[in-house]
Automatic annotation (TrEMBL):
PANTHER family: SORTING AND ASSEMBLY MACHINERY SAMM50 PROTEIN FAMILY MEMBER (PTHR12815), TRANSLOCATION AND ASSEMBLY MODULE SUBUNIT TAMA (PTHR12815:SF47)
Cell compartments where the protein resides: Membrane
Superkingdom assignment: Bacteria
Keywords in alphabetical order: Cell outer membrane, Membrane, Repeat, Signal, Transmembrane, Transmembrane beta strand, Transmembrane helix
Transmembrane segments: 21-40
Name of the featured protein: Outer membrane protein assembly factor BamA
GO BP annotation list: membrane assembly
The gene coding this protein: bamA
UniProt domain POTRA: residue ranges: 57-128, 129-205, 208-294, 297-375
GO cellular component terms attached to this protein's record: outer membrane
Keyword Transmembrane assigned: yes
Length: 906
């Protein structure tokens, strides 16, 4: 220590010195690198900087100095300044930045040099050290190409100690992601400035997989159900190839998920602990969850607050969670949704129903309070469509057509939600919580906007003569069928970003100067001006029970993102009805028949034939027993209306037991969605049916159809669909009534009625594990002139299990000739075997008959059981395996104990 100088003084001097050095470096870097003025070099050492240089003259040459291993040509290829052109300071600066971006150089200094030939720009560089060798030692489980790609290091790349050390972390993270949680990575060489080799030493260690998951203490919920709530999964057969990677982070997520699940069932005091145990070599993990379920809470009482529009009795009709029952968050959510829909149907879009549990001193009891803020009704002012995507091509009408509300309508929450579901069902747009369709509902004040815009008291898009204001009547609301309609609110959230198309707006035809003043919501009669009785149910008979608020206005912004609508699919299937079939399908869900290619660019960028929301499908399905080739085009909103139009052409061959059949033809269909549940469809069918190779002795009815037959039919059908899902429904029904008339070579009438009803007989408290009973019936009658290839047949896994395909039918000389009357029914009970419902068992009974006349004399019955196996890799349709035994049959019937369906689509 130097005497007489304090340590504080020395520290201050050192700090000032350091700051001075930093300042000098900044000045040098700013002058030389940031291109303020590049250094000026003279022709010779005798003339340091005496000659004046005109920096505006053209550059005679661009050179590189100081490079040792990197060729000058390779360096100059990274620059932009060219010979024969002037070089501004910004251009020089850009070149310097480009050279630094290569990471080849530790420094780059631009220098002007005046020569006899002209002005020369010189880049004086100092190269970084070059990596001479990259080596990975000890790796076995991961290929060297993957390691090289992870680090980005290769021979000839700049030597960078920081990059080498970062590569250690990247390699370790790669191993952890692959399940090698105990992997160690060391940098043997490459951490010293004098190194030119980079060598990594890897100790991979074991791959850690979950070999078992156990639960202790759980009584109310089975192990299988709890496992479905976990992100952590067991490795099948202990083999890491099939998954089961261990990740400690998911254990904590699993604890939260399990607690939330128990809380939702009323176990508010549940406690869950986890324990993780390794085997000796730490390659296997046993995860154990210890659960103290605690007491399950019951609801002591239910109270309702804030309701004025609906009585307490009306509200309680929608509440299924009753006093004395166990708390269940799923049932509670359903009740809240129903109450919100009740208010939403009256336009009270922002009504809030808040369930508030009140815990009591008595253990295991809770009061439930429904706090209701009714708000006021709203009408829709305008609807705006926003379609995003990498290169959006879809017309706005494709997004707006499924809407069931329109500008000027009451903001019916149920119809808005239904509209959203209809958009979600459109394959044109992406699905899911992140990218799926969204609707942003925003409260607006048209009068304030009107005053601000000063557009003569007329909203944009309105006509001055549109002065009629539709009276607001509720609760007697009716379904409105509109051309442009829209989906469901999300409480003023910004639900979608990255919009690239211009919004298209549809304005309300109503004027803000006439906003429902003095109307009563019940009947549209003006409210009396009696201040004494206006709020009393007594006295003035015209009075209201509570003061009514004037309706507000909302704007709907509908957001959707285009999905990949074009698909080329390959598949193979085998079933007991049709044998083995393959399939090649070209499908486009966003087809536009009016957008042909106008240039090669339209074809390359995918603009041609796309954007109209129409559906196009071309398929080839060759098989050993049946083959089909089909082209189909459908517009679900023809001319932007609720009418659907479809046109198809097909070629079909089938090798039956008793004859071979070939069909060539087309169909034209026109339909309309009448309401949410009712629809009507008409169809014209034109086919050439060729029947050949009949078995002998050939019945007369078969012989009459041998050869070519022209078939012309007109069909009309009416449908009523209340199913909760079109695929594997659990509730609701589907009914169809149809009539068909044939003309031409054959003249006959046909009447049909089909129906299916679905019941959920049991489900777990969480709503899963449903046991579903399905009942179905089919009735059909056709006239005497019906050809043999259009008569009724039954049998096989689709119509009558326990009998062969077409095994139930009248016969002549042992040959199936079909019937004019058909009645088929089925009762099936389906229940899951596994908690994840991937394996389900079915018990069923099929019954009915096919006869020449209306009769039940030859009634058949079969009973059986089967399995439904869902294999995600094979597609959404489950594998069906059914065993069935006929209990009642005819001597000439053809039976079949086992029927099946297996399909695979990619």
């Amino acid at each position: 220590m130097i005497r007489g100088v304090s340590s504080d003084t020395r520290c201050g001097n050192a700090l000032r010195l350091a700051l001075s050095l930093i300042l000098v470096q900044i000045i040098i870097f700013g002058n030389c690198i940031n291109g303020i003025i590049p250094l000026i070099d003279s022709v010779s050492a005798q003339e340091p900087q005496k000659r004046s240089i005109d920096l505006n003259q053209s550059i005679f040459d661009v050179r590189v100095e100081g490079n040792e291993s990197i060729p000058a040509l390779a360096i100059l290829q990274k620059t932009k300044i060219q010979r024969g052109r002037p070089a501004t300071r910004d251009m020089v600066l850009e070149d310097v930045r480009l050279l630094f971006a290569t990471r080849w150089f530790a420094s780059v200094v631009p220098v002007y040099r005046q020569t006899e030939q002209g002005l020369v720009l010189v880049y004086k560089v100092k190269e970084r050290p070059i990596v001479e060798k990259v080596e990975f030692r000890g790796y076995k489980k991961i290929k060297i190409k993957r390691l090289q790609a992870t680090t980005g290091l290769k021979v000839g790349s700049p030597f960078d100690i920081a990059a080498n050390q970062e590569s250690v972390n990247r390699i370790k993270q790669l191993y952890v992601e692959r399940g090698y949680r105990f992997a160690e990575v060391k940098l043997l060489k490459g951490g010293d400035p004098n190194d030119r080799e980079v060598i990594f030493e890897i100790k991979e260690g074991p791959k850690v997989v979950v070999s078992g998951i156990k639960f202790r203490g759980n009584k109310f919920v089975s192990d299988g159900v709890l496992k479905t709530k976990l992100q952590t999964k067991k490795a099948p057969l202990g083999m890491s190839f099939f998954g089961g990677k261990y990740d400690p982070a998911t254990i904590q997520d699993d604890l939260i998920s399990l607690k939330q699940y128990y809380n939702g069932l009323g176990f508010f005091d549940v406690k869950i602990d986890e324990k993780v145990g390794y085997n000796k070599d730490k390659s296997r993990v046993q995860v154990e969850y210890t659960i103290n379920e605690g007491k399950r809470y019951k609801i002591r009482d239910i109270m309702i607050e804030g309701n004025r529009i609906f009585s307490e009795e009306e509200i309680r009709e929608d509440i299924k969670l009753a006093a004395g029952e166990y708390f269940n968050s799923r049932t509670l959510a359903t009740d809240v949704e129903k109450l919100s829909e009740r208010y939403g149907e009256l336009g009270h879009l922002f009504a809030k129903v808040t369930p508030q549990p009140r815990f009591l001193e008595a253990p295991g009891e809770v009061d439930l309070v429904y706090s209701i803020n009714e708000d006021k009704p709203y009408r829709i002012r305008k609807i705006t469509a926003h379609i995003s995507g990498d290169n959006p091509r879809t017309k706005s009408s494709v997004l707006l057509n499924p809407m069931m509300v329109a500008p000027g309508d009451l903001a019916n929450q149920r119809l808005i939600a239904k509209s959203k579901r209809r958009i979600e069902g459109n394959q044109v747009f992406q699905k899911g919580p992140q990218d799926g369709p969204r609707i942003n509902v925003t409260r607006v004040n048209p009068e304030r906007e009107m005053l601000a815009s000063r557009e003569n008291d007329i909203l944009r898009g309105q006509n001055a003569d549109e002065q009629q204001v539709q009276k607001l009547r509720y609760p007697n609301l009716k379904y409105r069928s509109q051309t442009y309609k829209q989906p469901a609110p999300q409480q003023n959230q910004d639900l979608f970003e990255g919009i690239k198309t211009e919004p298209v707006s549809y304005q309300s035809p109503q004027r803000t100067g006439q906003i429902f003043r003095g109307q009563n919501y019940d009947n549209g009669i003006p409210e009396p001006l009696n201040p004494l009785f206006g709020e009393s149910p007594l006295g003035d008979p015209m009075g209201t029970e509570f003061p009514q608020q004037q309706p507000g206005w909302v704007d709907l912004d509908v957001y959707a993102s285009e999905s990949r609508t074009g698909r080329l699919m390959f598949g193979v299937g085998v079933n007991s009805n049709a044998g083995v079939v393959g399939s090649i399908v070209l499908q486009e869900e966003n087809f536009d028949i009016l957008r042909p290619p106008r240039s090669m660019e339209d074809i390359l960028d995918g603009t041609a034939w796309r954007g109209g929301g129409q559906r196009f499908r071309a398929e080839a399905v060759p098989g050993d027993q049946v083959s089909r080739y089909l082209v189909n085009w459908t517009d679900p909103y023809f001319l932007d209306t609720n009418f659907s139009l479809g046109v198809s052409g097909f070629y079909f061959t089938r090798y039956y037991t008793d004859w071979d059949e070939q069909r060539v033809g087309g169909r034209f269909s026109l339909g309309r969605q009448l309401t949410q549940e009712w629809s009507i469809n008409t169809q014209y069918r034109l086919e050439d049916v060729k029947l050949y190779n009949p078995r002998t002795p050939t019945p007369a009815i078969v012989q009459a159809s041998v050869g070519d037959n022209l078939l012309n039919t007109f069909r009309i059908s009416l449908n009523h669909d209340t199913r909760d899902a079109a695929f594997l429904p659990a509730e609701g029904h589907l009914l169809e009534w149809a009539a068909e008339q044939a003309v031409g070579d054959y003249t006959y009438s046909r009447l049909e009625a089909n129906g299916s009803q679905y019941f959920t007989l049991y489900k777990r408290p969480d709503g899963g594990g449903r046991h579903i009973l399905s009942l179905s019936a089919q009735l059909g009658w056709t006239d005497t002139d019906t050809p043999v290839f259009e008569r009724y047949y039954a049998g096989g896994f689709q119509t009558f299990r326990g009998f062969e395909f077409r095994g139930v039918t009248p016969r002549e000389n042992g040959i199936a000739i079909g019937g004019r009357w058909s009645f088929l029914g089925s009762a099936q009970y389906m229940m899951p075997i596994t908690a994840d419902e991937m394996i389900q068992m079915v018990f069923f009974s099929d019954f009915g008959t096919v006869e020449e006349d209306v009769s039940l004399d030859q009634f058949r019955v079969s009973v059986g059981a089967g399995l439904r196996l869902t294999v995600p890799a094979m597609g959404p349709v489950p594998v069906a395996l059914d065993f069935s035994v006929p209990l009642a049959k005819e001597s000439f019937d053809q039976t079949q104990v086992f029927s099946f369906y297996v399909g695979f689509t990619r």
